[in-house]
Amino acid sequence: MASGRGSSRRVPDNESSIAYVQMDGLAVMKMIKHSHEESTGNMEVAQGALLGLVVENCLEITNCFPFPKHNDESMDEEEYQLAMMRRLRRVNVDHFHVGWYQSADVGNFLSLPLLESQYHYQTSIEESVVVIYDTQKTARGFLTVKAYRLTPQAIQMYKDNEFTPEALRNLKIGYESLFIEVPIVIKNSHLTNIMLSELAEMVPEEDGTKFLDLGTASVLEGQLRCLMDRVDELNQEAIKFNRYQQQVIRQQQDKHRFLQKRSQENAARQAKDEPLLPEEDLNKLFRPIPVPHRLNPMIVSGQINTYSQHISQFCSQSLAKLYITQALQTAKEVNCPKIELNLISEIDKSPFTNEQRSVTAVWLHERRHTNNIMETMKMKFRDCSDVEPPEKATVLG
Fold this sequence. Notes:
cytoplasm; alpha/beta; MPN; 14 helices; 54% helix; Eukaryotic translation initiation factor 3 subunit H
């Protein structure tokens, strides 16, 4: 990850005054190209450095370059970044390190390595941001580029290095208050805007035949599977925490029983004018149970919330398409001739249910293997269904 990729210059840890992030089209296109190459090639997360400068309350990102891959052991990451920034400075390109970017899948970017990396960046470069680019959404036609910064509560949590329930409760921090989103504005030159306008006129318009496409089961299935995995993981964390609480209660009961027993023994010894037993350190007799960290459950809860929001939005759009197609189908059925409707209603006049006919069909098919005669199958049918079997040897009745 990018945990150690920030520069070493220190700044005061006061609250940032960045109001929005302005990205050049060149930096956006280079980031998109790198992310899609990684996602289609080896399905890895794409990461890179963002270069630019701060102008008043705006963080301008003018260029970027990818980080070297982890499997290349011969290359030093710090030396690689310094060499890249020196070369960019020679060609009069902004070379100040202002953050990093990472690709994501369907908006679910929250993870422990990302939190640690952004903490190291913000404590060394105050203005730094992490830009998240969603490859899956962009592939479906929705450009998704968002910038985030850690909140002061999250930075204080990492400084204290305490992730116990009491520490998180005192900081009043949850998964919804780990990051704060910074608005992004994409800026292009006037010549680029003219070229884009000409390209838009050259691209033919679509006929609009895919607006009601309902082939979305695979996307929904993937998101539901990811949501189920995260729910199972959160359930395991809840089981661990419940086990910890039970151990603490059991230990407190053992301490209480030990103190009661010791007081009774001292009372008996005092009545016999014998010396009292010395007081012992309870922490040595009953070692404190380590408190499980609550940072991982918090991150998993944030991932569940992200998946739930995407599934809700996805299902609402699909339901709208279903209602539209239902109205079209209803209008088509109303315009059908009544003769066809009568023929459809008169197709099946059998007194037996589909389940009964299916079971009978299986019995008839396996008769050559079971050697059952017709009378035996009729008896089994009568016992299972409480209905008289058909007189003819047919499953339709």
